[in-house]
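We close this part of the discussion by returning to an individual protein. Part of our work consisted of pairing the sequence of a single chain with a tokenised description of its backbone. What the numbers capture is local backbone geometry rather than side-chain detail. The amino acid sequence and the backbone structure tokens for this protein are reproduced below.
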Amino acid sequence: MSEVRNWLKSIPAENKRTAVQMKVGELLEAGNFQQLYQYLIDFDFIKSKIAVDDLQVLIEDYNSILHPSKPSDITAQQIETLRLIQGVFRLSEDIIKKDKKQLIEQLWSRLVGIENPDIKNLLERAKKSRRTAWLRPLVPTFPPPDTELIRTIKGHTAVINAVVVTTDNQYIISGARDNQIKVWNLETGKEQFTLTGHKKEVTSLAVTSDGKLLISASADETIKVWNLIEKKQIITLNRHDAPVTSVVLTPDEKELISSSDDGTIKIWNLQTGELIHSIKAHKAEVKSVTITQDGKKIISASFDKTIKVWSRKTRKLIKTLKGHTAEVEGAAVTPDGKRVIGYDLDGEWEYLFGWIYVWDIKTGEQIFQLSGHDSVVESVAVTPDGKHLVSASGDSTIKVWDLETGKEIATFRDHCRYVNDIVITKDGKLAISCGSELSIKVWDLTKVWEKNRVNYTPIGHPEEINAVAIAPNGKWAISAACDFRLKVWDLTNFSEVCNIEIEGFRVVHCFAITPDSKQIFLGFSSSEPSTEIRKMKCRNPRTQEETFAFLSPLHLGNFMVVTPEGEALISGYWGNRGMKIWDLELKQEVGYLGGHEEEVSCIAISPDGKYVISGSHDTNVMVWDLETEERVLVLTGHVGFVNSVAVTPDNKYVISSSYDYDVRVWNLETGDKVGVFRGHERTILDVVGLANSRAISASEDKTLKLWDLTTKKAIATFIGSSGFKRCAVAPDGRTIVAGDYFGRLHFLYLEG
């Protein structure tokens, strides 16, 4: 037993809280940095500290040894270890605050695989301390603490549209579709206060250099000026006739400029609220307005596909920048006022991409185009030195560009939906972004320039996961996503074995694997069946072993299962109230199971091959005898669409999930209800039956839950950063793969 554990064990229960709270301070005062180091890398102390203190206090404990006021004997390696552990707490603060039991999962999901003896000891001790079942990450599930992401901040109840940071880097201010403005401490991520008054969503923010006044724009057609010291509204400006899309302060901060969907730009006196001038600027909605640092030129961007440059003094049009082929979402200007950056959305529905255009403001000539985003560019910000551009996109990524060469330097990934706005601190060190998943993220831009930069790429796909499975031989996992690709993963080392692009931009919604693990049947978005087989080999580059003898795009439905003997396939289509039975040798339809009153939404087959189970939009689950093709049970109780059905390996239980947030379990032989399992806060999209009367459910509430079917209780929860769509379990009953809306694949192991 370690010194730390001995100390914890020796403390009387009534004194433990105070002793744990004071220990770091005592060791600091004594200058005993090596002993303090041992405490801060000890899992039992960390767990005890979190139990009695706010997580931010623990984060500051690490700061006290990383930035000591006294000379320290801490080594460079120890400093790196402390930074990594502290980084985990910064990144996972929102999850651990919600559920302190997630401490172990968060440590493992961010630190597993790091070659550091003290980190490995920390993880092993954490693992041994857990006495109950839990889902242990096998690979890094979330961004590790040595990447650009510093912190995630949550608190809004709706999509966040805008974010701004005070000049002194003390506060982040955000505006959202919940009509609220929130002020946050940048260092701690804590909410300071909330401003209310807008009747519709907040669309844009600006703050004075002294941090005293805030300007907000809203879809309620008003602009409000707030005193941040007194936390109150002082002026309302209401001369626009449509939603106000953007506000910006002039460099002297005497005036503010606004843009609106009414096609105008308006200039206001900041102190009095008086409207100084209104410019009918564009033929369509004006989506953004900005101003050069010398205060002489105003730049506006519009859905009329143009960017216009105006004289602030004369209010006359100087130049129109034409070249965008789609509606311009916004514009920015470099600090020297020489270049304008515009951004838009182009392409067709099956392949959207966001263009960024860089213009010479004097000549009106296009310098270059920046391409790389796979969806609309929502916001851009230029670094204070004018050398780099940071862009935020609907593809959930943030990209850093070199403005001299036009080359992409880095991509940040952690948002799981649209990134709506991005700003850079005045010192150029941090970027702050906000997204549709109700979060604000703080990024360290200095990491981009480091020579040994860790380039983090999540395991999975760049688009949301539609289907996951594990081959019956237990060797490979298969995933399909909205990126038109099918991937195969080696379960011995979780490496990507195959990456196959589906021709014709067809999205794979499901697949079924034959029992010999040699053939995959793909289900596309089309409702027309196709029995065309195209053979494609998939070979493991490490072992040269064929992962699948061939992949068969034998499209037979939108959801499907193969019988345990591999002789038949049962499939269903969106909009169809029944299921077709296909003979896989003859490759033709040989039967039909019909009886639902609305479309079938999911199917499963019992491990013994006797029964087919179907779920439907009619809220019912039905059990069919596969041999006789007769319906034998109708299981009722759900009050929402049934999303997923499964059978336990022992053929005892049918499990279903629904839009009603419930998991329901029935006896397969009798149809008797075993129980209703509640605990999810949003729609449950997938369920899987396990041995020993257990089941796993995947939900849009960002959790995977492990259920004990006998006690009817959730015995383990894994919290992600995005809603889970699909999950699958290997034949060993322990290895789990889950796919989420972000596109991540989570490889987990069921402990206990």
Residues 434 and 440 are 4 Å apart (CA to CA). The two ends are 23 Å apart (CA to CA). Confidence is low (pLDDT under 50) at residues 347-351, 531-536, 547-555.
